[in-house]
Structure formats: C-alpha cells, structure tokens
Amino acid sequence: YEVCGRLRGEVWSKSMVLIALTGYGQAEDRQRTKAAGFDAHLVKPIDLAVLTQLIEELPHQG
Fold first, then answer.
1. Correct CATH for 2-57 of 3.40.50.720, 1.10.1740.10, 3.40.50.2300, 3.40.47.10
2. Burial class (CB in 10 A: 0-12, 13-18, 19+), 20
C-alpha cells in the first residue's frame, strides 16, 4: 500500500495500472486498496478468466 501511494504521488505514474493481488477480500480490504491508489483488487487464488478480462478492459497505451 505504501509503495502504491508513493507511486501515485509521482506525475509520471498517473497512467500506470496497478493491481493489488492479495489473500484478503473483505469490503474493508478493497476500500484500503482503492484508497492507496490501486486500479483493481484481485483475491488469491486468482481466477485466470477474471485476470484475462481485467487485462482486456485496461486502457491501452501507445
């Protein structure tokens, strides 16, 4: 959370996509990742279909 917060404080990281991958999935855990600046919150074990869909929905640069 601290690293994400620091990254989000940098101008060059505004378009960077950050995804939290954690073993915690309660509402307060999701709120904490959102408050830290993460773009998404995934809970382990990861569902490959969910990850694939998330990546496909991400804004593409270039």
1. 3.40.50.2300
2. buried
